[in-house]
Design brief:
The protein contains 3 helices and 5 strands; from the N terminus they run H-H-E-E-H-E-E-E. The chain is elongated. The chain has 2 domains: 29 residues, no CATH class; 71 residues, 2-Layer Sandwich (Herpes Virus-1), CATH 3.30.40. The longest helix is centred in the C-terminal third of the chain and has 10 residues. Helices cover 22% and strands 16% of the residues. It is of the alpha+beta class and 109 residues long. It has a 3-stranded antiparallel sheet, covered by helices on one side. A two-stranded antiparallel ribbon has the order 1-2. This is FANCL C-terminal domain-containing protein.
């Protein structure tokens, strides 16, 4: 059954949606407006730690299909290291490490 369902894999859909169809199961996921980001807190997408010097990830990618969490200092260092980053006053702009959408963070210095 799995092998047959894998032929229906569509690249325009989320992997979760494709897996649900291929396996014939429904995975739990938050519905829009029912949960806050804090309910689904996770580790930083850069350092993979939940806490960094006692702080939890406080910056999130705004792209609907990403929503990855980051510690501000980790994201600042990541973006600042990119050759394509833009710095304006106290903000650094660049691409999200996971979805490549624009993301920004205030300078930690």
């Amino acid at each position: 059954r799995l092998h047959q369902n894998l032929r229906a894999w569509r690249t325009d859909r989320l992997p979760r949606e494709n897996l649900e169809d291929a396996l014939g199961v429904a995975f739990p996921h938050p519905q829009d407006g029912e949960s806050s980001r804090a309910d689904f807190a996770s580790e930083c997408g850069i350092c993979y730690a939940y806490k960094l010097d006692g702080a939890i990830p406080d910056k999130f990618c705004d792209h609907a299909r990403c929503r990855r969490a980051y510690h501000s200092p980790c994201l600042y260092e990541w973006l600042h290291a990119l050759p394509t980053c833009r710095v304006t006053f106290e903000n650094v702009f660049g691409e999200c490490p996971y979805c490549s959408e624009v993301i920004s963070v205030k300078s930690t210095r």
